[in-house]
């Protein structure tokens, strides 16, 4: 069997070939498949880029979810522009790990949970599955509550009614995904566009922004106190999302095909990289805009205690006008609805890959609503729940990143798609940074450092 692509990659030893137009279906998700005739140099670059952009934008939704709103607003309100560098660092890390995830899916024909299940002993697989499910639940809490808050703010309804409407809309999106994957991705793209436009408008509404300070704090690392470290861990948790690292490999795992004469045809990896850089680059700019808006609007006016999305909405109106608060809520709504649907898809991949157990996507969606509904109906502070969920996610990140980095460096798994020595060093360093931040956070909590 001969392997072909425009980069000379060979079929990975783990790859389970699929015939052209035939998905492995291992994770119960409809996948894009390149066609054997089109996956050649004769195919236009736009047609080769579009599938990569589709999966990248689906993944990027997780990087502009309501958890980002909560952590970025708190960071900007409390510390001004100081933590902008954390967003930049986290976004670059996300680009790297999403690329590795996409490459793993293409090279092996399997998603990350499936490879973990094959390579690790059963007891460790079950532990990692449990952590992944915790991450999925924490993600869903942030996304669902964020959308419910947006409905409450926009239409002056109770949070409970906002939650019910959110549930109906996310179920509708899941229905679209089950029947029309391409339409689902178009809807996701539109919702991401709404978020982007919202923050372009919010930034334009700022009376003055100290761009010198923005530039300085984007590139100069600095912590102020222990709470700034906690928020930084939350920002990392809201930016480098474990559930979409699992999901991205599933979205690309059927990208190679086997033609009728037995040739294995891979899509060029460069299109995946370009798609990820575009989608996550936009997400990163949106996150930075959130923090800049909070710093310019709240911190500079003395409102340094904005610690909830609702307070941010209410404070925006007297400072920038009613239009600004509405734009903010519309962006939050688009974020919550889109990311909640994507989170459910990731949950399917996690369960199917780790333990080979599949449940109906509708049942899973209903079950995962329970924690969010419990928080809403218990009267707990929803924004604080959002921030806590991001810190929980940050603790879950190493369980996705470390095995991904390990597998990406192994030739017996990746073939010639394995990471170079330099890339292995970079990924190891980034994993160490994340683990160190989490370890410091634990020590700070135990020792009461300020």
TrEMBL record:
GO CC terms, sorted: plasma membrane
Topology relative to the membrane: Multi-pass membrane protein
Domain of life: Eukaryota
Keywords of the record: Membrane, Transmembrane, Transmembrane helix, Transport
The species this protein was found in: Aphanomyces euteiches
Membrane-spanning intervals of the chain: 83-102, 123-147, 153-176, 183-201, 229-252, 273-295, 323-350, 362-380, 386-409, 421-446
NCBIfam families assigned to the protein according to its UniProt record, in alphabetical order: nramp, Nramp_1, PRK00701.1
GO molecular function: cadmium ion transmembrane transporter activity; manganese ion transmembrane transporter activity
Name of protein: Divalent metal cation transporter MntH
Pfam entry (one): Nramp
Chain positions covered by the region annotation Disordered: 1-25
Keyword Nucleotide-binding: no
First-listed, main subcellular location of the protein, grouped into a coarse class: membrane
Subcellular location: Membrane
Keyword NADP listed: no
GO BP: any one term: iron ion transmembrane transport
């Amino acid at each position: 069997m001969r392997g072909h692509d425009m980069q000379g990659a060979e079929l990975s030893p783990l790859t389970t070939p699929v015939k052209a137009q035939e998905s492995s279906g291992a994770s119960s998700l409809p996948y894009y498949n390149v066609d054997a005739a089109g996956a050649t140099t004769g195919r236009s670059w736009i047609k080769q880029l579009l599938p990569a952009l589709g999966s990248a934008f689906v993944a990027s939704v997780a990087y502009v979810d309501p958890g980002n709103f909560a952590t970025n607003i708190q960071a900007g309100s409390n510390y001004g522009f100081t933590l902008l560098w954390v967003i930049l660092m986290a976004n670059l890390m996300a680009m790297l790990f999403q690329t590795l995830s996409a490459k793993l899916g293409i090279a092996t024909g399997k998603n990350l949970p499936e490879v973990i299940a094959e390579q690790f002993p059963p007891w460790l697989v079950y532990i990692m599955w449990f952590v992944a499910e915790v991450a999925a639940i924490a993600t869903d809490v942030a996304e669902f509550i964020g959308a419910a808050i947006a409905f409450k703010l926009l239409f002056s309804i109770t949070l409970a009614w906002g939650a019910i409407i959110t549930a109906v809309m996310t179920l509708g999106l899941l229905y679209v995904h089950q029947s029309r994957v391409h339409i689902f991705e178009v809807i996701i793209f539109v919702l991401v566009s709404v978020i982007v436009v919202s923050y372009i408008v919010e930034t334009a509404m700022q009376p003055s922004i100290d761009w010198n300070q923005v530039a300085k704090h984007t590139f100069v690392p600095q912590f102020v106190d222990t709470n700034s470290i906690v928020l930084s861990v939350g920002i990392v948790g809201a930016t480098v999302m474990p559930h979409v690292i699992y999901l991205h490999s599933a979205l690309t795992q059927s990208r190679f095909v086997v033609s009728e004469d037995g040739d294995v045809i891979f899509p060029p990896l460069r299109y995946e990289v370009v798609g990820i850089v575009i989608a996550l680059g936009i997400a990163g700019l949106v996150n930075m805009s959130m923090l800049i808006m909070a710093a310019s609007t709240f911190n500079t006016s003395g409102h340094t205690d904005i610690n909830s999305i609702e307070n941010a909405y209410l404070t925006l109106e007297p400072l920038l006008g009613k239009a600004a608060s509405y734009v903010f809520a519309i962006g939050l709504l688009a974020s919550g609805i889109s990311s909640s649907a994507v989170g459910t898809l990731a949950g399917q991949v996690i369960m199917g890959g780790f333990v080979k157990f599949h449940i109906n996507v509708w049942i899973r969606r209903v079950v995962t609503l329970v924690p969010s509904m419990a928080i809403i109906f218990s009267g707990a502070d929803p924004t604080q729940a959002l921030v806590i969920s991001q810190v929980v996610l940050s603790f879950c990140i190493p369980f996705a990143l470390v095995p991904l980095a390990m597998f990406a460096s192994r030739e017996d798994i990746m073939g010639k798609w394995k990471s170079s020595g330099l890339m292995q060093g970079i990924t190891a360093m980034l994993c160490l940074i994340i683990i160190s931040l989490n370890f410091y956070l634990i020590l700070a909590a135990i020792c009461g450092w300020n």
